[in-house]
Design goal:
The complex is a heterodimer of chains A (296) and B (225). Chain A has two domains: 173 residues, no CATH class; 80 residues, no CATH class. Chain A is built from nine helices and four strands. In chain A, strands 2-3-1-4 form a four-stranded antiparallel β-sheet. Chain A starts with 9 loop residues before the first helix and ends with a helix. The chains are: A alpha+beta (296), B alpha/beta (225).
């Protein structure tokens, strides 16, 4: 602790390390670049999380019954399917999809003007489940028995690997953040060690006049923490601008166009400079105290 | 205040100091002489705990230096003012900031303020140079600034290692005068020097004991000085 009553206390203590040196720019640049990457990793992680939630949550509560039978029996078959679904516990609602909805489903592949009448298209019944859900296996067996040509698709076949992929993507995004934080800490620690070595004379003078190791370390820690914070602040701002520059989320565009932050998610990158400063603080303090311990 | 008891120290091979003992009393004045490489600087570094003895003990203000924590050693150093031949300044700070630097590292509340530091600079004759950077000072000015920094915390002991080594005779006398004044204020002073004329001049002004490092041992010099 520096003496609060002395005019030569904290203000002078903050200036004992010379301001110049390559470590200054190394730290600022490294923290800025890492923050830029961290913002992207964060955006990726958040987007993957949203995707996983969507696939896991909203889509898990829906299913489709495809009714594919002869044209003269299709109306009866659809009516039977709706009747069966109406009696099935766990089914909140069931409705026949309109031609426009079926056309919209095929539009990404065949364009908007697909003549459905000319194609042997099956009818589709959309099911929305209650919170508890329904017995998909039992329903599938019953539909197969009562309505030949009706097939239940509860999306599990394609939803499960997608949810797993999104979950892993989210994990990789978070792991990237941890690696970026560790790399930032390592670079700042190396820069701090270089600075300590270059300022050995400063350390000798401070030792001569009775400075404790914690005082000497604090002089370096203060400087490197500040550099890392402002470097990361600039890097985060650039990263946020770059993410904002990406196209807006578009239902037809899929995952890539939804990579940006949404709503309160824009606040998350603001934590990056703070975390960079904390990493720099811990790394510099550790490096400084360890090096000072080794000096006579 | 500082007691060396049968101290042995070296840097590999034969010890540089062997069986060295000294009891530095408050208000005492010692000169330490000896040829270059005899161990004068090592002796002073043992006194300021920048080195710890390989055997024997160094007790500083009643405590064994070998048993003190690093923080305790740092605190004890604030009670010892050290002046080196090369002064050791922070060249990016002004003279007044360098002189006041010990105040920035101290834990105490009762520290000198700006006026006291300015008075100290006036005492060593550097009032007009307080805003200068150390590299712009002459050798004598640097030594006086170093002396001001050494005493700004009102230490009980002053250790001066060849403080007049690079100075002309007039400036050497001025530095000596300042050291004598500090001794008259009650501070114990050890001056390592090979300048016998300086020692003879000092003995006319102050009751000084002359120690000589020779053949690894510390001897009390005779009346030939």
């Amino acid at each position: 602790m520096s003496a609060p009553s002395s005019p030569f206390g904290a203000a002078l203590a903050a200036r004992v390390v010379p301001p110049s040196g390559f470590t200054h720019w190394l730290t600022v640049l490294a923290a800025g670049a890492m923050a830029f990457l961290a913002v992207f990793a964060l955006a990726l992680s958040l987007a993957a999380g949203r995707l996983a939630d969507r696939w896991e949550g909203a889509l898990a509560r829906t299913a489709t019954v495809r009714v594919d039978t002869a044209p003269d029996r299709i109306d009866v078959a659809v009516a039977t399917v709706l009747a069966v679904l109406g009696q099935t516990p766990g089914v909140a609602s069931a409705r026949l999809m309109t031609d426009a909805e079926r056309q919209a489903l095929l539009a990404p592949w065949f364009g908007p003007d697909l003549p459905l009448d000319a194609l042997p298209m099956p009818e589709l019944v959309e099911i929305t489940a209650t919170g508890q859900g329904f017995d998909a296996e039992g329903l599938g067996l019953r539909l197969a028995a009562e309505v030949p040509g009706a097939v239940l698709d509860d999306h599990t076949r394609w939803r499960t690997p997608l949810v797993a992929a999104a979950g892993r993507l989210r994990f990789l995004g978070l792991a990237s953040l941890v690696l970026i934080g560790a790399a930032t800490a390592a670079v700042v620690a190396l820069a701090a060690q270089a600075s300590l070595a270059a300022n050995r004379r400063v350390i000798e003078v401070l030792r001569l006049i009775g400075a404790r190791d914690s005082f000497i370390a604090r002089a370096f820690v203060r400087r490197f923490t500040r550099r890392a914070f402002f470097g990361a602040l600039a890097g985060s701002a650039l990263g946020m601008a770059a993410v904002g520059w990406l196209p807006d989320a578009d239902p037809a565009g899929g995952f890539l166009t939804g990579l940006g932050f949404q709503g309160a998610g824009w606040l998350w990158p603001l934590a990056v400079p703070v975390l960079a400063a904390l990493a720099a603080f811990a790394a510099t303090r550790y490096a400084a105290l360890r090096m000072l311990e080794e000096l006579p | 205040m500082i007691e060396l008891d049968n101290v042995v120290h070296g840097y590999g091979g034969d010890p540089l100091l062997d069986g060295v003992s000294l009891d530095l009393a408050p208000g005492s004045f010692h000169f330490l002489t000896g040829p270059s490489g005899a161990g004068k600087t090592t002796f002073l570094k043992l006194c300021s705990m920048h080195l710890l003895p390989q055997s024997g003990s160094v007790r500083v203000f009643g405590r064994d230096a070998g048993q003190m924590s690093r923080d305790d050693i740092a605190r004890a150093r604030r009670r010892i003012g050290v002046v080196h031949q090369d002064c050791q300044f922070l060249d990016h700070l002004s003279v007044i900031d360098n002189v006041a630097l010990p105040l920035a590292v101290a834990d105490s509340d009762n520290l000198p303020g700006t006026d006291e530091v300015a008075e100290l600079l006036a005492w060593v004759g550097l009032s007009g140079l307080s805003g200068n950077l150390p590299p712009t000072l002459s050798g004598g000015e640097r030594q006086r600034a170093a002396l001001a920094r050494a005493v700004v915390m009102s230490p009980e002991v002053i250790l001066a290692d060849e403080p007049t080594g690079n100075l002309d005779w007039d400036m050497s006398l001025r530095i000596l005068q300042l050291l004598v004044e500090l001794n008259r204020m009650g501070k114990a002073v050890i001056v390592a020097t090979h300048d016998l004329n300086l020692i003879r001049t000092a003995k006319a002004q102050v009751q000084a004991r002359v120690l000589r490092l020779k053949d690894r041992h510390l001897q009390v010099a005779g009346a030939d000085l």
